[in-house]
Amino acid sequence: MDHIINLDRYPLHRPNTPEWDELVSFAKDGLAQDGLFNLPGFMTPQALASVLEHVHPRMASESFHHRRWHNIYFKDTVDGLSPDDPALTKVETANHTLCHDQMHGTALDKIYQWPEFAEFLAAVMNKSRLYTMDDALAGLNVLEYRPGEALNWHFDRSIFTTTLLLQEATEGGVFEYAKDLRSDENPNHTGIAKLLSGTVATKQLAQDAGTLNVFLGVNTAHKVTTVGPGTSRIVAVLSHYDTPGRAFSAEEQMGFFGRVA
């Protein structure tokens, strides 16, 4: 894996060594303080180039164009809110998607399937073990945001999200978030309405291509800003769960990928 991951800087291949423990501690501190951590230069330049060489023609000819209007919850109804509540204001998300079965054999696929990668994430998340998805489409996705496209405000369903930035946008395409906008005890519908109206202070996260990011998005609202003219933003999403056998329903596959495995 040393030709794919910068193992000198990030020794995932040496679990339970002092260097590995230090990296896990760094990641945990980032999650506790900021709700996220970055590992810049995680993927080697050679592996990054090979992935983009694989991705670019497939994005042009095989990708699914996902476009939808949604509220921040991705739900039709929310308990305690009327349909016209400002917290349910609709926003638009649009991107192009490649699925796991379109990425077999690539460096991304090898990272996703590498047991030491899951072992590292499990240690960071204080889990005994994490599993890849039992889903031919959903476990590993590559998303492209072209000029005029964006991932709009939402909360994640999974406890954490793992991404690898493959290509930076020339303009826009910036990760933006409002940390702990809600909690398990307080849904903070008023605060969410203010966020959607543009009156809540947010943070933006600068990243370079090759950066691994792990983010706690269940209660932190986040989005990717609209991409401007020039180069698109391309990011990989690698999904792990603490129980085996996780998969999207046929309805979810059709909604996100335009097809069913």
Write up this protein.
It is a single chain. The chain is of the alpha+beta class. It has one domain: Jelly Rolls (Sandwich). The chain contains six helices and 13 strands. The chain has helices at residues 18-34, 45-61, 107-113, 115-124, 189-196, 250-257, and strands at residues 36-39, 64-70, 91-98, 131-132, 140-145, 151-154, 161-167, 175-178, 203-205, 212-215, 221-224, 233-238, 240-241. The protein has a seven-stranded antiparallel sheet, sandwiched between helices. Strands 6-11-8-9 form a four-stranded antiparallel sheet, with helices on one face. Strands 4-13 form a two-stranded antiparallel ribbon. Helix 1 packs across helix 4. The two termini are 29 Å apart. The mean pLDDT is 96.
Give a short overview.
This protein is an alpha+beta fold and 261 residues long. 26% of the residues lie in helices and 23% in strands.
Topology of helices and strands:
Blueprint (H helix, E strand, L loop, with lengths): L17 H17 L1 E4 L5 H17 L2 E7 L20 E8 L8 H7 L1 H10 L6 E2 L7 E6 L5 E4 L6 E7 L7 E4 L10 H8 L6 E3 L6 E4 L5 E4 L8 E6 L1 E2 L8 H8 L4
Antiparallel strand pairs: 1-10, 2-3, 3-5, 4-13, 5-12, 6-11, 7-10, 7-12, 8-9, 8-11
Assign an overall shape. Answer: globular
CATH class: Mainly Beta
Number of helical segments?
Answer: 6
Largest sheet: 7 strands, antiparallel
Strand order of the largest sheet: 1-10-7-12-5-3-2
Distance between the termini: 29 Å
- Following the backbone from N to C, one meets helices and strands in this order, namely HEHEEHHEEEEEHEEEEEH
Mean pLDDT: 96
Corresponding CATH superfamily: q2cbj1_9rhob like domain
From the alpha-carbon coordinates, what is the Rg to the nearest angstrom?
18 Å
CATH architecture label: Sandwich
Estimate nothing, just give the exact number of structural domains: 1
